[in-house]
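[agent] plan:
  1. take the single chain provided in the ticket
  2. run structure prediction with default settings
  3. attach structure tokens to the ticket
  4. add a short note for the reviewer (M.T.)
[agent] executing step 1
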Amino acid sequence: MKQFAAGVDNDPYASTPNPALFQKLQGKDLMLVFVESYGRTVFDQPDYAQHVRPRLQQYAAELGAAGVSMRSSYLTSPTYGGISWLAHGTLLSGLWINSQSRYDRLVMSRRPTLNRLFQRAGWRTLAVQPAHTLPWPQGDYFGYDRVYAAQDLNYRGQPFNWITMPDQYTLSVIQRLERPAARASRSWRKWL
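[agent] step 2 finished; step 3 output follows
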């Protein structure tokens, strides 16, 4: 923890000029979507994979024909069986956040998050948190321009297992609410 505390306030990009951040992504919209472990399960289990892989290949081809590309990858998570905010903190900070004490120290630090780096480069950043039904004070640290919580998404259906709404609904609402504005406004051409 002592070593972690010594590095958590370090800003490895402090001397990087804003225009130099994410140069290869300039002019592109970027969506970073956290899909919990069940996303990997559908590829590891043959019964699911035989149905899911062809669909993804079809979608990738359709997107490619429209001039859009997609990439997926796996990350090694610092946690399992819940407490996914540690994994989110790891990806967004570049630090290994494998305990609540590290997470608490992170959100009190000055370390820039991936979101804040994208903001410096000119992107508008969003968090879509359909499971959040209470205030999320730690969200301030991560530096989102806008946070959509469950009540902001106007879902009127039944809860989806323990989550408030299905992922497909959440993604469709964000497309409807944010994408037209991103296309219409030159200042919103970029968003994360």
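[agent] step 4 note for reviewer: Residues 186-192 have pLDDT under 50 and may be disordered.
[agent] ticket updated
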